[in-house]
Amino acid sequence: MDVVFLSRLQFAAATMFHFLFVPLTLGLSVMVAYMETMYARTGDETYLSMTKFWGKLFLINFAVGVVTGITLEFQFGTNWSRYSEFVGDIFGSLLAIEASTSFFLESTLLGVWIFGWKKLSRKAHAAIMWLVAFAGTLSSIWILMANGWMQHPVGYVIRNGRAELESFLAVITNKFGVLEFLHTVSGAYVLSAFFVMGISAWHLLKKQHIDFFTRSFKIALVFGLASSLFVAAIGDTHGVHVAQVQPAKLAAMESHWETTTRAPLHLIAIPDEKNERNLIEIGSIPGILSFLGYHDFNAEVKGLRDFPADERPPVLITFISFRVMVGLGTLFILLTIYGMFQRNRLIDSPNYLKIMLFSIPLPYIAIELGWVLAEVGRQPWIVYGLMRTSDAASPIAGSQVLVSLIGFILVYSMLGALGFYLIIVNAKKGPALAVK
After folding, report:
1. What's the pLDDT band for 99 if we cut at 50, 70, 90?
2. 87 to each of 92, 181, 244, 245, 366, how far by Cα in Å?
3. Contact between 214 and 347 (Cβ < 8 Å)
């Protein structure tokens, strides 16, 4: 049994499952804070009911996210000890800062928010929720800066066979990490907006709590439209940076084999990695890949054949992940723009409401595929250009990893089933339970 493959599979399973809950925590905390702020300013009891209803769903999601996230950091010691030994001076410091500051700050503030309803003024209580949202975002900064360093290592020196920190400022201002943070968090906002709109649509289709869920839908709609547009804008900037620092990933994203100017974009392609070509190319548009990668229709784009075979990422997975992610991102923009025209007659737009209800899973898929693109597209490197994934695994038996992998899948499946069951049950009950 291949230890590296099993370790990668285990980390992927744990990370992707954990990330089913992280984006909703980031986005829903902001919307709940806004709703409570409106209550604090106006005294409107509907906003209080909205705060408690959506806040309860936020708390369920947060609890499952915390449980599933704790195990991730342990894997760097159990499954990836050689990686930890090589980059622990840099990567470990960022995780330590996140755990000892942001995570504990967020958890403590959340406790104050839960138990402080009758002990704090309305404005003070609303301010606590904004601080919860801030702490969650701060936590994501440290995590994504750590991942950004893996994607584009900066601010280090190789000393005594290890990567040691030379410039902390360079690490936390790493352009790749900054763009990754902006892209990920704005994507989380889109997911949260569609979550709120989808649940609101379910109740509006049943014509219950109309004022409550119309207001909820409108808040999420504006939040979702702004976030969807920002995701597209920052995604373009991020793509240009990827072309500069990870050209092999760009070539794999587009299944681009030959180095050429005015490089075409293939809407549909079936890569044949063994023979270094595409079996099928449909909808090829000259110059578009050059423009997307370098904002120049005549720019030269390096093809996969000009990279050593053992330094190319898996093309098919990378290509499909990118296409589906971008396609869904475009759909989110279209749905929210259309929703702006329907916002004052939602109850009379059942088809649109049905679409939004069934769209709840789509941002989850888009975000997960975004991480597949980021991580698979970086292969064969665990730290790009510095350390190969095959050199990073712990010297342990494959059977050990297999047993723990099976354990992770079983436990996480039960946790996920319980978490989503509680969210669905409480979402269906509506706001009446929340204000008791």
Report:
1. confident
2. 7, 21, 24, 20, 30
3. yes
Residues 6+ apart with CB under 8 A from 341: none
Q: What is the mean pLDDT of residues 165-173?
A: 91
- What is the torsional sign of CA 31, 35, 40, 41? positive
Quote the tokens at residue 16. Answer: 């992707």
Q: Where are the domains of the chain?
A: 3-259+302-431
Mean pLDDT (the chain) is 89
Task: Reply yes or no: is the peptide bond before residue 361 cis, omega within 30 of 0.
Answer: no
Furthest CA-CA distance within the chain: 69
Mean pLDDT of 86-103: 85
Three-state secondary structure readout of 292-335:
HHHCCCCCEECCHHHCCHHHCCCHHHHHHHHHHHHHHHHHHHHH
| % of the chain exceeding 70 in pLDDT | 99
Query: What are the structure tokens assigned to 375, written together?
Result: 């991580």
Q: pTM (2 decimals)? A: 0.91
Of the candidates 48, 46, 36, 51, the one whose C-alpha atom is nearest the C-alpha of residue 126 is: 36
pLDDT level of residue 1 (50, 70, 90 thresholds): low
